[in-house]
Every structure is written in structure tokens, then in C-alpha cells.
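Input protein
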Amino acid sequence: MTRVKICGITRAEDAQIAAAAGADAIGLVFYPPSPRYVTPEQAAEIISGLPPFVTRVGLFVNHSALQVAAICDRVELDLLQFHGDETPELCGSIGKRYLKAVRMAPGCSVADSADQFKDASGLLLDSFDPTQYGGSGETFDWQRIPADLDLPLLLAGGLNSNNVVSAIEIANPYAVDVSSGVETAPGVKSAAKIREFINLVNRVETATE
């Protein structure tokens, strides 16, 4: 069963729509340069109306351990997502489960990243852009994803309703992560696109059972 994370949530109503549509997780971006950035106060308000069993993920990019801990004190996060150049030591120092994003630059080895971040709950594979950390809306070659890793793999990078079925069939990820692919504008989600995306993911599972 492929899980779905809707990332870059900036409005409480979008979080509730995602949850009602069957999203397993929502992502909150604490990286100020991002157009999907939310303050800790905004994030706390967004998640206050979520039903049980929807995972609340906080996305960080090159924050210090103290900055991450301070946000965790103000926002009830279930899972951390480190999307920058963080070390394994920093990621593991907060005391919460975490995902480590791997930007799929030319020559990048997923196996090496899995070995380096052994205590991660999973690796999130994203497109590489030399000028930004995620959110490019571009895909990468899914054939590069190894099939024999111990860590769960989450697939991100340019996913939308037009390509998510192919992505799942090729990569067989634990979860898919979508942001711009279900938006009408950066940070503004479309209820119709969220529902269509999740329905397509569920349809792939039904077809392969």
C-alpha cells in the first residue's frame, strides 16, 4: 500500500481537505525562503484541526539543532524531515523520528545515503536543483532507485496526477510526496487535485493486488 504525503500545507482548510481525502501525512515547511513557509504559530493552528492518525511532518533545511528543538517545543510534530545538508549526528540529536531527503544529483548513491543515515525512518528521494532545496516541480529518473534497501523510500519531485501511476509502477516506493502537483498557486492546494491524486494512488494499489 503506497502512502501519500501532501507537503507544503499553508492553510488549515487544505490540511483538513487532505485528511478527508485520505492523506496519510501532511508536511509543514519551516524554511523561510520557501513560498510554502509557515511560522510555528501558523503550523500549530493548521494541525489543531487534524483528525487522529494523520502524521504531522515538519520540514527543515540546514536549521541548527537548537532551532529545530525550539520549533518542536511549539508545534506537535510526529516526524521531522531534513531536506538540507544535515549530518546524521544532527538529525539524530533531536530525539524524534526523522526522514532524510536525498537530492538525486548526478552520481548520487542512494545506497550510500542509506548507510550514512541508518537511524532514519526513511529516505525521501527528490529531484536535484543546484539553486534550491526541493520544490522545483521537476522529476528525476526513477530507474535510478534501487530495489533492495532496508530503509523505506519516499518518492518526491514533480509528482502529479499525470505521472504518479508510472512513478509507483517503476519505483514501488513506500510513499509518494506531492506539493506543487496539487496546487493552484504556491502553497494554495486544490481540493480537486488532492482527491484525484490520492484516488489514482489507491487505484494503482487495487490494480496490483
In short: Helices lie at 12-21, 40-48, 65-74, 88-92, 110-116, 164-171, 191-208. The first strand starts at residue 3 and ends at 6.
